[in-house]
Amino acid sequence: MGAIWKGSISFGLVNIPVALYSATRSGNDIKFNLLRKSDLSPVHYVRVAEADGKEVPWENIVKGYEHQKGDYVVMTDDDFERVQLKSNQMIDIREFVDLDEIDPMFFDQPYFLAPEKGGEKAYVLLRDALANSKKVGIAKVILRKREHLAALKPLGHALVLELMHFEDELADPEKLDIPTKVETGKKELAMAATLIDGMTDKWDPEKYHDQYREVLLKVIEEKVAAGGKELPKPKASNSKPTKVIDLVSVLQESLNQAQAAKKHSAKAAPRHRKAA
Predict the structure, then answer these.
(1) Is residue 152 part of a domain?
(2) Which candidate, 13, 43, 48, 224, has a CA 20 to 30 Å from the CA of 62?
(3) How many domains are contained in the chain?
């Protein structure tokens, strides 16, 4: 695994040399090419001007900001140079806050941090101190010529740098038509709580898979084996959307299904034999 970035974690007078690594795999997406149907020739995009539909070569393309409808101001390389932030290769921790105080909506993209030579002891010290205090370090860091807000968090033996959204990047849910004065009955609320309790389990990410991706890969394999010929159409689903009329009866049915599923799961679980 190659490092994306190398620098230091800085807080107070402490500097910890670290390297940044990707914590997610973006290559799992199944990629497709656009082809002409008649001969499967790849299709390329052409840049055309809206005014006359003519193709525009790269050397004649500029970047413009629409400051009002139909009016643009052209931005040059020199203009972008004025606002370009020079990286100091530093994860600059500004403060520490309780993790529980941060809305999960602020978190965006995680990265792993590993200590570089000479920073091992300070790295472990910071990691353990954060884990014991249940706090995170709020930092500023420049990656790919952009300043990011980030949180420094412990995760097992590692430190994770999670890029965050700035406050003005989050949409306001108050602008949605969400009911606020709908009353719920005590019986309905109690049944919903029982259903949630019955479906509660320990978080195990290995139980969940990208079913769409798995099925799509299987279809691709079948089509390759068939020499690209059309496959038989899948059988139509008989399921129909149901209208929720009686919430209590729907909750009760959900409870019955959840309890039955839990019993089935308990029976299916392997039993450990006692040693003789």
Answers:
(1) yes
(2) 43
(3) 1
